[in-house]
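thought: fold this chain, then report.
action: predict
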Amino acid sequence: MRIVVLTTVPSSCTVIGSSTMSSSGRRVWASAVTVVTNNFSLRVRGAMRCDGTSGTGGRECAIENRDRHRVRRMETQNNGRILVAELFGTTVLMLGGPGTAIFSARYLDVGVGVLGVALGFGFSLLIMAYVIGPISGCHINPAVTLGMLLAKKIDTAHAVYAWIGQIIGGVGGAAIIYGIASGKSGFKRGGFAANTWSGDHYGFGAMVVAEVILTALFVVVVLFTTTRKFAPGFGGLVAGLTLTVIHLISIPIDNTSVNPARSLGTALFAERSTGALEQLWAFFVFPLLGAVVGVVLFLVLDDTRLEDTMLAELPGAGELRDLAEKVADTLD
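observation:
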């Protein structure tokens, strides 16, 4: 059965897809079309025909679809759902990551160890990517959200609501862990899987390098999952594996942050003697700095233009871009 959906595409829309247009510019045929506006996008498998223009300045289009189950309604961005999705996802990340470290890392003097904790973080992100990814993008990390905002993959409202959800989810997840753990006789909070550079860790300098570089790596990977060249459906898997590797590298260095919301939640419940609260500022500053570095690396590796990101608004950004191009030309 063939279903024809008639819709008016406003002049502010962009129609993306392989197509053929007649010399008069009045007819378009495409096997797969995406109609994109500032608020929503609709991808249609089938054919799209545009004939003439409407009285409102738009173009009257007929979208033909052979499968009635694939006809979907256009939905506007729902900031409330974004907040709840990021809150839920960050809570799950806290339970899967720090929760594994607190409950299972040394369970019965054997436990899951560093590998198990790293997998707890990675699997949590992987699962959530496919659950809440269609709703909010599944950042569950303020640094990732900053990178997406700077790269103009999301708008400011999306970022703000995501940050609110992430902070609440990070603190809420830690509170759930504490509520469960405190039920055990003799439980002591200790470090509570918090991030520090002191004690048995590698020191301030090593922490700075690790947080900036590893957060940049993570943001680059996440940004590439949003490009057209990336294999469809594998974004969550790649992001989850990347987060696992990052934790395998840096748990001994500073307990691995790359995520200010995760650091905030655990620091609030760690014992004061560990210095987690006093050192918390660093696990906001350097992951967020790493996000900026990640966006710059993404621009170097991808064909995205500087002008397509918020970095173009920074003083001297254009000059640095021109200098980099001259260096690249010289090397060629």
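thought: worth noting. Residues 3-70 form one domain.
final: tokens above.
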